[in-house]
Amino acid sequence: MKFQDQIRFVRQNMKKNKTRLFMTVLATAMGCTFLIVLASVGFGLQQSMVDNIVGDRLVTAVDLYGKNPDQHKDTNIYDEDIQMFRELADVKAVTYRNNIYQWLNPKVEGEEVGSDKTTQVDFEAETKAGFDLSAGRMPEADNEIVIGYHIREQMDEQGMPTGYEDASEWLNKTMTLEVTYYAAGKKLTEPMEAVIVGVTEIPTKEWNRDKTIYMGVGMLEKIEGITGTRNGELPYFEVENPTAEKIDAALANLPKPSEQRSYQDVQVVASHAEKVKGLVETLRDKGFYTHSIVDELKQVNLMFAIMKIGLIFVGTIAVLIASIGIFNTMTMAVTERAQDIGIMKAIGAHPSVIRKLFLLESAMIGLMGAIFGTVVAYGVSLAVNAGLPVVIKQFMEEEVPADFLFSVIPPYLTALACGISLGVAMLSGYRPALRATRIDVLSALRRDV
Amino acid sequence: MIELAGVSHQFRIGKRGKERVVPVLHDINLKVEKGEIVAVVGRSGSGKSTLLNLMSGYIRPSSGEIRVGGQNVTKLDEGEWANFRLANYGFIFQSFQLIGSMTAYENVELPLVLKGIGSGERRAKVMKLLEQVGIAEFANHYPSELSGGQQQRVSVARSLILEPPIVLADEPSGSLDSENEKTLLTMIRQLNHELGITFVIITHDEQVASIAHRAIRLQDGRIGGLA
């Protein structure tokens, strides 16, 4: 019997009792919805808590400390490595910090800035990685910079820090910088100007003080153009006034901007916390020294996996309860159609064909339930994510973070739920199907069954 | 074509452990030749239907051997019997045994569907046969919308759709009036004559037996005489 004929046959039979079919599909759909929604809470909490509350970069970032000398001759990280990291699966962003190797004497409106370092970053990658600002915006032009939250440190008469003024007051103000360089045997300075457009968020670790000046690659290249050295590095002299020959000799030993750039403080940020482990393994296999907070928090993935398995298990119980309905429906269908089955067997229907027809019928009930259940589950998930923050705000007076999701349904959860519904439906239909194959032809023809 | 050698059959009646054995057929030796119409006649309870059920594979003989087309079918399992029936037998029943939720067309089509024949080929075959038995205009009618004679024609069409070499008929005219009975018997003769189909007909009706080449009389489970 061809499969399309089996489908036609089953559809014909299912139409015989539409109310019973509807109720059975409804029960299966409810079970499937319950399974998906319940598990989606696990997925939602994982995504929202790990990625947002625990601090996504804290958990998802993998620090890279160069290459393993056993596998690589040169242990520095270069452009091609950065490019390779960006092409890896499950990578959200690749960031780095290139510190400027000289004091730029920054001032705002004549006031000295208590910055501890100036560093060049890739603002686009930083934005993707979750570089947050407490005020202002990210730079868009080459001469725009971001300053650290604690940059306006106040000192007492003894030079001890007493507090911090609001750095956001400096937004849109011009910061002057002095680039020191050597030319024709003389130490000279070149002024530069930058516009402050953003202030970083207060660091998560409260003992950290962010007094950094963040600039883009445009400004770094300008500094390097002035000094003629990589990262604006200056040579060190033991004497106060070195000779021109010594200056030239020292400058010749410093790396030039035209040489291949090596990157410091490289971080590869994973798309999700659960992807970090795999990413770390990939990077280690490629011969990089890595460190991730997940190294210390290996139990995180396990904990969420156990939680999700538990929720799926509880949800499966709902599907199993629905399967009682399928079993009942199929048993009644076999009883009602006993004579038809007898006639089919009498004229030459193979028992396996009879079994297949009933298994297919229960599978179709399971499939219809799974489809309806999935659609409803997506609706419930959307409603929960939209409605629950409003309810919490109304009755508990708590503000839920804007991107917090209570329920997330990844595609594989849908596939899993549909698979479980289908499997359970077929299992419930198996016994009635077996009973159908055992119907005695003569009893059925005599209408004795 | 069909050969029964020393076939006996007994039913076990009652609860397990307190069963009573009721012998129905005793040492039946019978040969049906290809192209023959054989009528099995006898009074009610003589074992006619049991004999047909043994030939159909619905029950197994307690002893003896059944051969069909040279093949020993005595020990076939349920699945093998199903395939064998589909390939070799057509069935006509007294109460027609049509599936009530299927139209006349679908009932006739059923053996073709079970055999896995494509829908295009099926349609042509079914319509041709329905025309031959004279009920093409009722193709989309359900059995409940047809008379007894029309239902039996559908049953005959279903039995012939796979062009089987053998048709087993159990009281085929039992539910028909005399006019429809006459039409059915004419049809059987014609099919036998034109297509060489072997018929084994169980009947207690002498008129039905009269169209047979041979009539075998069963009496108390034994072949009692040849007519």
Automatic annotation (TrEMBL), chain A:
Keyword Transmembrane helix: yes
InterPro entries linked: ABC3_permease_C, MacB_PCD, Macrolide_Exporter_MacB
Residue ranges of every copy of the MacB-like periplasmic core domain listed in the record: 22-223
Coiled-coil stretches noted in the UniProt entry, renumbered to this chain: none
Principal location: membrane
A family per Pfam: MacB_PCD
PROSITE patterns registered for this protein in UniProt: PROKAR_LIPOPROTEIN
Membrane-traversing stretches: 21-45, 302-327, 364-384, 404-428
Family of this protein: Belongs to the ABC-4 integral membrane protein family.
Name of the protein in question: FtsX-like permease family protein
Organism annotation: Paenibacillus soyae
TrEMBL record, chain B:
One cellular component term from this protein's GO annotations in UniProt: membrane protein complex
Molecular function per GO: ATP binding; ATP hydrolysis activity; transmembrane transporter activity
Domain of life of the native organism: Bacteria
Protein known as: ABC transporter ATP-binding protein
InterPro entries: AAA+_ATPase (IPR003593), ABC_transporter-like_ATP-bd (IPR003439), ABC_transporter-like_CS (IPR017871), ABC_transpr_LolD-like (IPR015854), MacB-like_ATP-bd (IPR017911), P-loop_NTPase (IPR027417)
ABC transporter domain boundaries: 2-227
Keyword Nucleotide-binding included in the entry's annotation: yes
SMART domains found in the cross-reference section: AAA
Organism of provenance: Paenibacillus soyae
Keywords, comma-separated and alphabetical: ATP-binding, Nucleotide-binding, Transport
